[in-house]
């Protein structure tokens, strides 16, 4: 088993979905709120972002990189963290993640590092993921026909990108019609949206249009699935509602991100469709000491060539590092159980580690 | 680890949702049917309430308090149990639960001890939880304007109570509109309901009215969530359908009870809203030897200051005791795993035990 | 614990839901596609049916019956397998399953052994399960009144059968009205369907008619539940949508098959209704090294007299064997944990093994 654990510790990861980390200084409330994904309001006075699985995992796993021991109390953690400039924290945590390639969603970037800044941290190659809803907002602000503007922008922005991304989960969810709308419908919807200001796209017709144009681009299309903030109706972010869309999605890889608590439904879809993949980013961090159980559930119906790694790190650089740490620990615990029970051989386990860590991602995103 | 286990064994519990236990004698069929939560009919001739996880747990955990050894067969268990008067069983089991405060829902009390009788058992302080649907039935029977009668009754009944409770899950479920109805709608709905007899409230308008009046009372509002008897459409008792209601619920604590099999959705809501809490009462008893796994799932997304303990005991006093026993055992097993893996420190584990056992409940219900 | 494990290894199983195994030769793509349940298209060029939990379990568990060691690589597995005639593989695997009674669904039998051929393998008694949708297609092809033809065919075909089976999950799912339609509606729907060719029944009225006629036959009615191929909308195969149907199903045993990922909902229904049962067939095979966790979940709310065993084997005879092997291993692991923790006695565990292995099935299907 030592060989398996050593392999998992050292394996290079493709983090196929992350955001920028902070580079600018911030106060403790910024940090504590960043430890809560779902709440869109400031934490209540009686609460602390540290008193969560994620908070405990940050103290346990990230403390040592700040020079303090595991489980040091929250005040001390914050004291040490706030004594180090954000850019130095970013370098330290991202380099420690042992990630060879970061696929960065640039669509939600308020206060976070951009692509060039991420690359400058020297922690691996950086690739762009283009958010469809951002392209739509740019198209709304452009003169002339919306559809033409969207198509043109999408083509230009994705030329050097490795994937597109949809946050439909936050804009009404997956349930309901997701067919390709007629151009006349798109024109009408765009006119209405432009009249309303053309921000925060939630028009269903235009969301559908974006998805189907992304299919034509042909690069992998990422979907936010499951847990997120409370703007999202959790039950509408169940990926089984994507079935009709998947039935017409052809060969374009569709990447189901995060998935909790619908990881079993996502695994089913990854088995049912040659072009569907899944990961457990975001959830792994928030589950902390419970993340190994979750990683086990990712290894159920999904074929092993359809599972990827991501952190979904955003903001505190701890998250970019912690995702990798918890993934290595949880995968090791899960696979060791299979091997100990003689259900899997160790050689097979090592092979599956490589598939999830980087091989599948390199194939799907053509990372070379 | 011994210190952690000893702490969990001895910690005082606030049981923030229970019902009265039996004081009057009954036959074996009453007992066996009480071991099945979901079935509203007598058990089939081929079946036995003892051949369930709950039945096995009763024999294993409660037998010793009757003077018989763990796992003694069902017939012997019943023989010993039926030889002891119910009031003595009630005293014995409730005192053994080591509960300092019982929050008792008086809305479903057929054949069970009332508040004074519960208090007289000498097993801890007793506080009242007022069921909204019972208040509605009283208001339907009162003369004059329904809304005024409801408001007046609710104010008087909750003055000395610590919380309100809704069984909307049993009266149509959470899906659909849960906004505050206009008073004219309330008057019309009340007239229709009074014409039908004014019993077993299932009018949606009046249910919604009750919820929003409860928000004005401002005391914690408990919701039955998830498993219950088959009058409830299980899928409609998924708490994610409460999202729109929670979005307007302000600061009033909303307590999600039981939650199985939607404990992950409930945990998400507890993270998403500063005023949402959860427990695993009822489910812990019915899961018996599987309850430790369930308790682990309660410790996922929910912040640790948002998790409470309850038994949901009703009827056999075994249930009031067993809830506590299984909770102590399951929490110990769960936390020991975190500590053994060095994901949590033992000190943190002890602190979280106290939060769930009583600290959170005392804060939310202002128990002093 | 050795006694418990030995008992589970040797206990005779009733496989209460299986299909025929292959007898005719086939190529590797037939085999690999048979290792994927959900995908209705050929596997992608980059994929392999062997790189799944099921594929790993086949290599680990079935290899030794081909004379090769556990975990031998996929190419070698295929090489040895393809060197043995299918009928010999069928005999070898089915006999090794230690199944005393096979209940065979004859409704989906393309390329698979029929009842007589299954019986001729000498691996246990064979009983028929009649698929309602097949009866409907026969009735559509018969002259005269559809309802009369259906009733007559159903009566004749079920006279010697032990159960009926519905694949409503694949024909629109459980959500929506499932009441008994009026005969006039049936006649109209049948006329429309016959005009369309009378194949692949998906008319809701006729599906409902079939269910209610099956209730009158009174033999156990099996439902495909949860995971299947992608023709099925997974969320519509959630058994909680059967609640209204179950409320009128009387005493006729309703058998919920497979259930993943809705096994918790299925367990709730098995507790809520005296006539509802569940198993975990199909899912156990596809979960491989993760199947023990799943088997644990089957042992939650469902009373122990309501749980059965099945493989749902179809095609490769490995599946008929593997279902039994994984069930024995997973049940042993689950129950050993209960007994080790002193939550169950070993004698109780042995008794529950017998209930699930054969006692419940013999009672429900009156196998004698």
UniProtKB/TrEMBL annotation, chains A, B, C:
InterPro entries: Amidohydro-rel, Metal_Hydrolase
GO molecular function: hydrolase activity
Gene3D superfamilies found in the cross-reference section: Metal-dependent hydrolases
Domain Amidohydrolase-related, residue spans: 177-367
Protein name as catalogued: Amidohydrolase-related domain-containing protein
Organism: Mycolicibacterium vanbaalenii (Mycobacterium vanbaalenii)
Classification of source organism: Bacteria, Bacillati, Actinomycetota, Actinomycetes, Mycobacteriales
């Amino acid at each position: 088993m030592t060989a398996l654990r050593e392999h998992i510790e050292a394996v290079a990861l493709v983090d196929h979905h992350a955001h920028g980390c902070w580079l600018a200084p911030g106060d403790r409330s910024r940090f504590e709120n960043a430890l809560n994904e779902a709440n869109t309001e400031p934490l209540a006075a009686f609460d602390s972002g540290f008193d969560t699985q994620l908070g405990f995992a940050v103290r346990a796993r990230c403390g040592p990189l700040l020079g303090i021991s595991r489980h040091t109390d929250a005040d001390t953690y914050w004291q040490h963290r706030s004594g180090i400039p954000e850019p130095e924290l970013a370098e330290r945590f991202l380099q420690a993640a042992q990630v060879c390639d970061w696929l960065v969603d640039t669509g939600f970037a308020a206060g976070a590092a951009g692509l060039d800044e991420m690359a400058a941290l020297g922690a691996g190659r950086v690739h762009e993921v283009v958010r469809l809803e951002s392209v739509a907002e740019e198209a709304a602000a452009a003169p002339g026909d919306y559809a033409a503007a969207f198509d043109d922008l999408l083509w230009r922005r994705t030329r050097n990108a490795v994937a597109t991304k949809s946050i439909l989960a936050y804009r009404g969810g997956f349930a309901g019609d997701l067919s390709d709308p007629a151009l006349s419908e798109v024109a009408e919807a765009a006119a209405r949206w432009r009249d309303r200001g053309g921000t925060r796209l939630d028009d269903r017709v235009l969301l559908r249009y974006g998805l189907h144009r992304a299919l034509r681009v042909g690069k992998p299309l990422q979907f936010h699935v499951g847990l997120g903030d409370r703007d999202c109706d959790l039950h509408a972010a169940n990926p089984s509602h994507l079935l009709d869309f998947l039935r017409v999605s052809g060969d374009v890889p569709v990447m189901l991100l995060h998935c909790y608590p619908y990881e079993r439904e996502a695994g089913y879809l990854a088995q049912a469709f040659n072009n569907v993949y899944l990961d457990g980013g975001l959830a792994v961090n928030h589950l902390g000491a419970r993340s190994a159980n979750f990683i086990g559930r990712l290894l159920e119906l999904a074929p092993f060539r359809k599972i990827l790694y991501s952190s979904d790190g955003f903001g505190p650089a701890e998250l970019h590092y912690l995702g990798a740490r918890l993934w290595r620990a949880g995968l090791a615990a899960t696979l060791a159980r299979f091997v100990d029970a003689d259900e899997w051989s160790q050689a097979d386990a090592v092979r599956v580690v490589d598939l999830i860590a980087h091989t599948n991602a390199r194939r799907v995103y053509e990372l070379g």
